[in-house]
Amino acid sequence: MIMKIKTYQLGKELDSFNYQQVQDAILAILENGDNVVLDMTACNYVSSTGLRVLLYSKKVAASKDLMLYLVGISEEVQDIMNVTGFDSFFDAFSTVEECLSAINN
Amino acid sequence: MHRVDLFPTHEYQGLKLRQGRPYPFGATVVGNMVNFSVYSRYATDCTLVLFHNREEKPFVEIPFFKEFRLGNVFSMIVFDLDYENIEYGFRMDGPFQPQEGHRFDKSKILLDPYAKLIVGRDVWGKQPNWDSIYPYRARVVFDDFDWENDLPLETPVNDLIVYEMHVRNFTCGAAAGVKHRGTFAGISEKIPYLLELGVNCVELMPVHEFDEFENSRISPVDGRQLYNLWGYSNVGFFAPKAAYASSGKFSMQVDELKTLVKRLHANGIEVILDVVFNHTAEGNEQGPYISYRGIDNKTYYMLTPDGYYFNFSGCGNTLNCNNPNVRDMIVESLRYWVTDYHIDGFRFDLAAILGRDQNGNPMSNPPLLESLAHDPILGKTKLIAEAWDAGGLYQVGSFPSWGRWAEWNGKFRDSIRRFLKSDPEVLADVKERIIGSPDLYASQGRGIKASVNFVTAHDGFTLMDLVSYNNKHNEANGEENRDGENHNNSWNCGCEGETNDPNINRLRHQQVKNAISLLMVSQGIPMVLSGDEMGNSQLGNNNAYCQDNEIAWLDWNNLEKNADIFCFFKRIIKFRRLHKVLRYEDHLRHRDYRNLGYPDFSWHGVKAWQPESGYNNLTAAFMLNGQYADDNGLPDDFIYVAMNMHWEMHGFELPQLPQKCAWHIFANTGMVAPEDIFEPGEEPILDNQHEVLVGPRSIIILVGRG
User: Fold this and answer.
1) CA of A105, closest CA in chain B: separation in Å?
2) CATH number of the domain that B391 lies in?
3) Domain that holds residue B449
4) Residue in B144, B179, B251 nearest the CB of A52
5) d(C-alpha B321, C-alpha A17), whole Å
6) Per the CATH hierarchy, to which homologous superfamily does domain A5-99 belong?
7) How far apart are the C-alpha atoms of A56 and A40, rounded to whole Å?
8) H helices within B421-488, ranges in order?
9) Spatial separation of the C-alpha atoms in residues A79 and A86, rounded to whole Å
10) Chosen domain end from B536, B557, B581
11) Does residue B85 lie within any of the structural domains?
12) B390 lies in a domain?
């Protein structure tokens, strides 16, 4: 079976100013029964609220037997995710292509 | 079903409000609302001051309307705040009458005493804006950390091996080899090291928010900036030190510390916090307004009849711990750290103060200590008292315990140190310390688990300095060497400070091994000072509270330089963890009460079964009978320890073992590595089963097994 996947691109930052918009967009994809590949290549800052959006989305996905993958995490963001423990909840890939090929295999 | 109280009733400058809930105090997020609540018995008026993040001027100041007050509590709900972009404080109005104990000043913006996230000192050593109208700022916390299955570990107290450490000192050194030096994340990176060492509990020196610039000055010796490195000076009792988090600049210290606890727990390591409830960073009459002084001075501080600050802490003021409201705050704080951070235990700095009444007099049944001993949430939390204070109260052995409190056993430290330097007056006392200090703890039924044993702690010399210096060398602290303990019971082994003399250096290593041996074979909870396992030196500074530099930072190069010491520590810690007979919970009986052929514990001298035989109170031996310490039906081994603190060699006659058992040698501190200690379980059998020669200033540990 081929997985239904939608890619969503984050902007430069994910924080309390734009979290609602991002949250709504991800939830809409999940509502539609699609898995999410979150392309974070452009993103260099995720705030505390932003981390919670990611984890909440992941948990909503899991409750629907769907996946949420993170792609292209910058070193700054990876650092924040690591020291705050959020990285342990996610499957992450360097590029969208790498992620898709891993999923398809 | 929807709640009917989700609608605002008031509006102020465009913000929607309604009456708040008085409890809990502090700021609490509920959906799109934040509930602010603050207690002050004597304030006449209160204003909530809101800032956008890092902005110098507030964007709104909301008065607490009359209908927002209940009793002595001001509480208000504010709707639709962008809580991640809010900093809040209070202004309090009320009398300024210092002689009556009141110091209200509504020109000051005050930190919430229940603030759970404090910003303003986010990056260690970064100069703040000294003119800020509100330097330490409270933020709202979203307390939804995902702990998964984690909980406090509840390791039996008697199984603990405590490692006392400082967040910065542990990994600030250039050779630490971590990415996030001097932070909670840095400790996370060193978990494999802690596992290799074998400790199962870290005791973190204060991690509550404090000001590293407090009393900051320049060292007269080397011109370096001195900081309040240790942090025994609280700004807030609910918030972690931001600058201890590598993510502090993003205000994520809460998540970073919780992640550290979760990772330590996943590796079987408990976390004890050193907590300082005896005073605050507000100092005396000349000190700054941060919070308590302006919120409700008379409630929070112990005051003399004419309104001055009592100074039982030696730090300018004394928290009024047995005022019922302050007591509640302390209990709330501890519950919060256990509930929200999964902390396993607390070590209370200058805990004797917690037993003083509001006039400073010691009480026989201090209500705060009793509350903590019986608290439901703290029911399995380790409670450890530093059972003295700076006002002269010394309660080692008599700290009110209700069967729950353990103590830092200062007498263990003093006696063992004196014995190590061949003091012939101390053997009787040393014997009490080795068997878990029954003279201090047996009569009250507190058991061995009441005694936290240590030879070194953050206060005083490191272990390597204890054997390298006769006198403290604290000139770099800028107090003309007046600060720090004068009675160290130390001995430099023949030369003050570092030396190239191989005989002196060899003896120092031997003395370090003697000290850790005595600590690990004694009954009670052993506590190791971080860095001692690699022979860390502070160059004779025995009070390095202000040395945020390589004096206090661990030098990880020592791991290689003193590899024999590290190996000795690892093996003797492992030995203790393997042998239940070293970790009794209750005191020994010195009798064969189960008719097993040998008593549970017996003293010996240079002649077996004759404890009085020996040389000038500098020799002694003991034997533990492992049959009394069975683990799920499997008896432990016999353990025999011979101690010779004389400067001459002595032969010790060995007690005869049951048939099919033989003595094996685990450690001999008189030998150089690798003959000084063996891998536990792989100890070679002794050629001579009847006598062992114990060299000058040496300890031999034998295992008797089949």
Assistant:
1) 30
2) 3.20.20.80
3) 157-581
4) B144
5) 42
6) STAS domain (3.30.750.24)
7) 17
8) 427-434, 438-441, 463-466
9) 10
10) B581
11) no
12) yes
The 3-state secondary structure of B255-270, one letter per residue: HHHHHHHHHHHHCCCE
The helix-helix angle for B410-420 and B427-434 (nearest 10°) equals 130
pLDDT the model gives residue B695? 98
Is there a catalytic annotation at residue B370?
no
User: Where residue B630 falls among pLDDT bands split at 50, 70, 90?
Assistant: confident
- B577 and B596, same domain (yes or no): no
Give the pLDDT confidence of B652-683 residue by residue, as tens digits.
999 999 999 999 999 999 999 999 999 999 99
Task: Please spell the DSSP secondary structure of B180-246, one letter per residue.
Answer: STTSHHHHHHTHHHHHHHT--EEEES--B---TTTT-EE-TTT-PEE---S--SBS-SSSB-GGGST
Number of domains chain B contains: 2
Residue B51 lies in a domain: no
Q: What is the 3-state secondary structure (H, E, C) of chain A?
A: CCCCEEEEECCCEECCCCHHHHHHHHHHHHHCCCEEEEECCCCCEECHHHHHHHHHHHHHHHHCCCCEEEECCCHHHHHHHHHCCHHHHCEEECCHHHHHHHHHC
Which chain B residues are Cβ-neighbours of A77 within 8 angstroms? none
pLDDT digits (tens, 9 = 90+) for B113-143: 999 999 999 999 999 999 999 999 999 998 8
What is the complex's ipTM, to 2 decimals?
Answer: 0.95
Residue B83 has pLDDT above 70, yes or no: yes
CATH number, residue B648: 2.60.40.1180
Would the pTM count as exceeding 0.95?
Answer: yes
B386 has catalytic annotation: yes
In the structure, what pLDDT confidence band is assigned to residue A2 with cuts at 50, 70 and 90?
low
Query: Across the interface, do A52 and B142 touch by the CB < 8 Å criterion?
Result: yes
The answer to whether residue B342 sits within a structural domain is: yes
Residues B508 and B655 in one domain: no
Q: What is the pLDDT of residues B31-55, one digit of tens each?
A: 899 999 999 999 999 999 999 999 9
% chain B with pLDDT above 90: 93
